[in-house]
């Protein structure tokens, strides 16, 4: 009913904000990064959450990550440079949440290649037991990374959607009130209630699709940010992502495509 006649974006974000106070924009970009994994023309959104220690960037990522079904297309943990190449069952469209990333040159290179090759395999040529071998990372892999310090190369930063958590005193007060209220009831930090199950069902419906998203009003877009060419691609990916999340409400000319509308 929500997918056909409601607003799945609004439903998921409201559920996210029940788990995590504030940082709505962060939640939105993480959600859209999932949607873009189902779009054949997307260049991918790669969220990087930045902020001071203890200000909620990890909790924000965990809150949205909690709304993803517990299936094989989600992973959480630390990353080393070649880990993903050696994971045999890594699926296309996997969401990888890496908290407090400590960047090395090799990991930086791997991430740059996987993000650049968003719609393609990323290949690593190596030798195993004196035999030539090609290892791959599947397409449409998304990385959610948190970091206190921006110790990433400029080339990698250019591929990331950098987001700062809200560190204002009003959010600090709201978080305190939420935690005290939760403590009084003995509530879990990440419950699996009806709202969470509905969000997981919506996300799974999106993840089961691979569609082309067309923007029929492209000539009406008056873009003035031409100095950084990546920004237009990011904007178009946002539009396509919103359309993908509402794919059951968008017109289709063929079985495997939909058209975004102005609301997106």
Molecular structure report:
The chain has 264 residues and is an alpha/beta fold. The protein has helices spanning 2-5, 8-19, 24-35, 57-66, 105-116, 154-157, 169-185, 194-207, 229-245, and strands spanning 47-50, 74-76, 95-98, 122-128, 131-137, 142-147, 161-164, 212-214, 257-259. Strands 2-3-6-1-7 form a five-stranded parallel beta sheet, covered by helices on one side. A hairpin with a 2-residue loop joins strand 4 (122-128) and strand 5 (131-137).
Shape, please?
A: globular
Low-confidence stretches: none
Mean pLDDT: 87
Please count the helical segments.
9
What would you say about this model in short?
The chain has 264 residues and is an alpha/beta fold. The protein contains 9 helices and 9 strands.
Descriptive keywords:
single chain; 264 residues; alpha/beta; 5-stranded parallel beta sheet; two-stranded antiparallel sheet; 9 strands; 16% strand
SSE layout and pairing:
Blueprint: H1 2-5, H2 8-19, H3 24-35, E1 47-50, H4 57-66, E2 74-76, E3 95-98, H5 105-116, E4 122-128, E5 131-137, E6 142-147, H6 154-157, E7 161-164, H7 169-185, H8 194-207, E8 212-214, H9 229-245, E9 257-259
Parallel strand pairs: 1-6, 1-7, 2-3, 3-6, 8-9
Antiparallel strand pairs: 4-5
Helix pairs in contact: 2-3, 2-8, 3-4, 3-9
């Amino acid at each position: 009913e929500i997918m056909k006649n409601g607003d799945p974006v609004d439903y998921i974000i409201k559920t996210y904000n029940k788990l995590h106070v504030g940082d709505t924009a962060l939640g939105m970009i993480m959600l859209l990064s999932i949607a873009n994994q189902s779009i054949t023309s997307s260049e991918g959104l790669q969220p990087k959450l930045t902020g001071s220690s203890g200000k909620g960037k990890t909790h924000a990522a965990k809150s949205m990550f909690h709304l993803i079904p517990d299936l094989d297309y989600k992973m959480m943990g630390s990353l080393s440079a070649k880990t993903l190449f050696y994971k045999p069952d890594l699926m296309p469209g996997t969401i990888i949440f890496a908290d407090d990333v400590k960047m090395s040159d090799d990991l930086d290179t791997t991430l740059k290649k996987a993000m650049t090759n968003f719609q393609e395999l990323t290949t690593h040529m190596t030798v195993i037991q004196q035999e030539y071998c090609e290892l791959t990372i599947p397409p449409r892999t998304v990385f959610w990374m948190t970091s206190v310090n921006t110790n990433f190369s400029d080339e990698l930063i250019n591929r990331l959607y950098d987001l700062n958590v809200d560190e204002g005193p009003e959010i600090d007060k709201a978080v305190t009130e939420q935690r005290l209220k939760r403590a009084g009831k003995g509530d879990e930090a990440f419950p699996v209630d009806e709202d969470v199950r509905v969000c997981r069902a919506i996300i799974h419906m999106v993840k089961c699709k691979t569609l082309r998203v067309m923007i029929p009003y492209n000539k009406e877009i008056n873009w003035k940010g031409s100095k950084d060419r990546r920004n237009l691609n990011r904007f178009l990916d946002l539009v396509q992502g919103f359309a993908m999340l509402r794919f059951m409400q968008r017109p289709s000319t063929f079985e495997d495509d939909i058209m975004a509308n102005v609301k997106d």
